[in-house]
Write a structure and sequence with these properties.
Shape: globular
Helix content: 40-55%
Structural class: mainly alpha
CATH superfamily: Winged helix-like DNA-binding domain superfamily/Winged helix DNA-binding domain
Largest sheet: 2 strands, parallel
Strand content: 5-15%
Number of domains: 1
InterPro entries: ATL_DNA_repair (IPR052520), MethylDNA_cys_MeTrfase_DNA-bd (IPR014048), MethylDNA_cys_MeTrfase_DNAb (IPR036217), WH-like_DNA-bd_sf (IPR036388)
Domain Methylated-DNA-[protein]-cysteine S-methyltransferase DNA binding: 5-87
Organism: Owenweeksia hongkongensis (strain DSM 17368 / CIP 108786 / JCM 12287 / NRRL B-23963 / UST20020801)
Number of strands: 4
Distance between the termini: 4 Å
Radius of gyration: 13 Å
CATH architecture: Orthogonal Bundle
Protein name: O-6-methylguanine DNA methyltransferase
Number of helices: 7
CATH class: Mainly Alpha
Keywords: DNA damage, Methyltransferase, Transferase
């Protein structure tokens, strides 16, 4: 990706997460070449919640926990958005996480983003 802005690289990947799937902060960080920057990916997602074209609700922590739920303007908004896409959530954790997990390394051509 020509743009060197970290947040823009995060958003470019997040926009590609398919409906009904989730990924993790760490998976995005690793994909964009910053494997120790999962927390920064979280900051990027928190800052993107008002952007309607960035599906920040589809990015969860490495265990499938809705760790960013407090940034959605209500304690259940993130959960409700995921459930509206057919993703089961119980006790703030995505169920069948491995089944609905979207790995950008598998799904995308990384060379396109570099």
């Amino acid at each position: 990706m020509a743009d060197d802005n970290f947040f823009e690289r995060v958003y470019a990947v997040a926009k590609l997460i398919p409906y009904g799937r989730v990924t993790s902060y760490g998976a995005i960080a690793k994909f964009i070449g910053a494997p120790k920057s999962a927390r920064m990916v979280g900051y990027a997602m928190n800052g993107s919640i008002s952007e309607h074209d960035i599906p920040a609700h589809r990015v969860v922590n490495r265990n499938g926990i809705l760790s960013g739920k407090s940034h959605f303007g209500g304690s259940r908004v993130m959960e409700q958005l995921l459930q509206s896409e057919g993703i089961s959530v119980e006790d703030d954790q995505v169920q069948d996480f491995e089944k609905v997990f979207w790995d950008p390394f598998i799904e995308l051509d990384r060379e396109t983003f570099l």
